[in-house]
Design brief:
Blueprint (H helix, E strand, L loop, with lengths): L1 E4 L5 H10 L4 E4 L10 H11 L3 E4 L13 H22 L3 E6 L22 H13 L5 E6 L2 E2 L6 H11 L3 E4 L3 E2 L2 E2 H17 L7 E4 L6 E2 H14 L11 E4 L19 H7 L6 H12 L1
Parallel strand pairs: 1-2, 1-3, 3-4, 4-5, 5-10, 6-9, 7-12
Antiparallel strand pairs: 8-11
Helix pairs in contact: 1-6, 2-3, 3-4, 5-7, 7-9
Amino acid sequence: MKILLTGKNGQVGFELQKKLSALGEVIATDREEFDLTNPDAIRQFIDQTKPDIIINPAAYTAVDKAESEPNLAYQINTIAPQVLAKKAAELDIPFIHFSTDYVFDGLQNEAYVETDKTNPQSVYGKTKYEGEEKVSEYKRYLILRTSWVFGIHGNNFLKTILKLIQEKESLNIVADQWGSPASASMLSDVTFKIVDTILSHKNFNDYGIYHITNEGETNWFDYAKFIATEAIQLGLKVKCPPDRIHPILTSEYLTAAKRPLNSRLNCEKLKKTFMLELPDWESEVKKVLREIL
């Protein structure tokens, strides 16, 4: 069993590389071995390795930078997934692709379900949405939309807050953007279950788009306060305690790319199809903080 995995140095790829080795040989790649901006190199690599399944967590994720590098974001988030999906279809193997809450505009009140209308507001969101469209032209695909990813590896909000509360006297954090954090280890556990299900059921046919985050919801401000409180309990010396973290509005915090105010994703379809229970975000944050600290 050969699993081709992209983005092994990213948050999700790092966890997946460890987790999936129980299912078979993981051919884990990064941009040196597997250049997602080079379609010919992608095809050639797949022809050489002949995988049984392709998993693509790799992406261009620098949301603000994408506004000034739209072509590069398009290459990695739209063209590369299309090439991977087409190659998987030619080999008649499954393709699992990760996507994002940024495909939505964040204006509806409820958590988004998979069939809700997409309306991306940033270059990053648009290129990820277009990638979804290209992938869904083929049959055996799973698109896993997630949000607010955090883990012990790579860059994320949790690690940024840990750094800032040790350096600054006070912090202003946006309080009107809502979502559900998703831990990279939870994402790898669920992907493991999905891959196992697909490979052990020859007639598996529940392909399509799925939403996947941890249970519960929060906003960036409450999330930051939670991180600070837990870190202090674990013995971290800080300059900025939770009561010096202040809420602000998105309109007071200018960024190059527009963020969705509502990033909440409804995960019922995933839980039902794969008979899963998802852990709450707080327990996953505590777990990661213990590992880091």
